[in-house]
Here is the input.
Amino acid sequence: MLELALEDPLGSAALMQDELLEPADVAAAVMEGIRAEQFLIMPHPQLAKYMSFKASDNERWLAGMRRMVGRARAGGGDTAAA
Here is the structure.
């Protein structure tokens, strides 16, 4: 997957459309997660939504990711998964 991100900067840009977090905010979320003994720490609310969707219907998520990557490779501009 890392190779795909390096080959396809448009695909990775689509994942970064939302507001970026400050390092201090991420560190605070990680420390809070460690204290709460959480297995999965997701400091960005958009990531929690993304992971929830991925877990609820993995096949649909995979199909959307394939479409997004295909559009990005074809230079389709809008790479948001449908």
